[in-house]
Amino acid sequence: MPEIKFQRVSKIYKPNIKAVDDLNFTIYDGEYISLLGPSGCGKTTTLRLLSGLIKPTIGSILWDGVPVENIDPDQRDIGYVFQQFAIFPHLNVYENVAFGPRVKGMKQVDIEDITEAHLKLVGLQEKSYYFPKSLDAADLQRTGIARVLATGAKTLLLDEPMGALDFKIREKFQDELLRIVKELKLTAIHVTHDQSEGMAISDRIGVMKKGKMIQISSPLDYLYSPKQIFSAHFIGESDFFEGVVVKYLSKTIEIELLGDETLSILTKTNPSILPGDRVVVGVRREFFKIEPLPENYNLEVNCFVGKVISDRFLGEKRRTKVNLEFGRTLEIKRNSNELVFKEGSSVLVRIPEQAIRVFKSPEISLIDELEVT
Amino acid sequence: MASIELQNVTVKIGNNILLDNVSLKVDDGAYIGLLGPSNGGPSFVLKVIAGLLPIYSGKIFIDEVDVTDSHPEDRNVGFIFEQFNLFPHLTVLDNILYGPRVKGIDLTTKEREAKEVISMVRLENRESALSKELSGGMQQRTGIARAITAGAKILLLDQPYRALDAKIREEMRFEIRELVKELGMTAIHSTHETEEAMLTSDKIAVFNEGKLLQFDNPETVYKIPVNAFVAGFLAESNKFQVKVKDNSFIIENSKFIVDGYEDGEYVVIIRQIDVDLTSEPLNVVNEFECIIDKIRILGEFIRFTVTINNSLTIIVRELLSLERNNVKNLIGKRAYVNFRPDLIKLFLV
What we know:
The complex is a heterodimer. By secondary structure, chain A is α+β, with helices and mostly antiparallel strands.
């Protein structure tokens, strides 16, 4: 349950190879944080720094205000949960969970109490005498979690804990894990490559790229008010348009979009954007509105005419690709029971003002900025 | 360019039946998705076609030739695994040329071919990189390039994108389907994800416990599932067992109206996405007042757990929308859910 603070933490392996680069953030007491990012972004290194397996080259990590290098790893009360279930194959579930308390030299009666309480916590009382080889992946991971918690861990470090689990049981497992963490008032830091897992389970998410923390905020913030182009791109799906701020009015700005034709959109002002700035406009694919092109229409502000390239039914949703007249293709995610569009049909695409996010153009090209490799 | 046919294929290991009398016909040039739980059948089908798993009974044909007893290397198939299976200390080019080199094939023409394929899979600047230095997506592309260069007519993809980041997965599933179509290859792709199967496949086969349950185009499988398993596997669902009488049934004191079902015992599948959640009543059939207990943000979807009449728990899934920007404030609030009768799926027990 500690508060953990990263102060200007870098881990440098060789000159110029920074596995993590100047990390500054705080994980609050009782918080569930997920770290997301492309492979090699530094999320696992961050977890290893927390565990004490590696030390920062620069900066320090404070554990309730005390620099961690002054605290023995054993005293940090950390539990590490891996994708590959670090449990003993020759011990049954009960003995795996009892292992930590036993090694700590606890009294037999305490070992039994703690073990039974943790088996109950993860719902494995009925399977306590099963051996790992007869458990499915989810029960193996439940055993792993009970085992680290029985050692008295207050901070859980989870490295792809659901990586080996069937897709269909992951949602159930997420609920269980979150319940345990909140019930025991643990602090949890969870590394995953599955965005929806991070979204579902976390109070806040940290998106990392090339060793840097790009943004750290709540799941809803990423969806409705992303702070950076990369996080808007990496979490969920957005379409991006490059443009220039041409007019600055009292409450709105006009942005001229780069395309075959000149088109502009209006959106509310943003203190960090100035007239003449090159900008990138981002819109989530769920937020576009689309309708058949009426026979007579006046093109209102933030409306575009286009032709449907494809409209794919995907069960829980549809994906509609539209070629806009000004030379851009975009993709819209819609409810699967909405109107079906024929290939080639003319449509009107509306971008609601609240859906528009404006970012300053990156110093590198937009393609490079969005690259995930 | 190859058609594939499984005729009454059964695979047994000891007393375990891995595939149970499976018959499946895949047309030349088709892209087929196999859906099912782990060990439910899809991976075994791929291994049987590749000749990596012995069959107990039945026959396998490739291009109408019986290959049941042929060696894997004589079947012209490329197998793409989740774990990439590349040599880490060889370059992209050497990984791709490994097979032809071992077989003693003249490398001058093969190398030119390999370079063309490398550019098709967008690795042209990486041909000299060691495969261990590549990202997961690039390693998977290398594997596909290796299969194409080896002359495979059939690509078997076993959960190929499972280990990849969501962003890479999105790109790859489009790209690889396009590439397979462009080259006229036949592809069979196993996955646990409905969207991946629906997006890439011409037809989908759904398996459970070694049995092929349904094989049809994606929209039909989704909208007209043959049984409760298929209905529930294709989309996250609420599932109940009920007695239908006079076209209605009761769950926990809540009465639901359906249309066109005879009296009897049924399994009900109501997909989470088919439940409509509103703040005001719409005064439609099957509408109930409810309390919102829990809200989970899943990214493109929001999941609500609601309770009707203090007793019936229903999960509702909704596509993200602008209007839900303050959704967390709804926890504990009163709302309304309605269930369209035509979207309630009933299957006789």
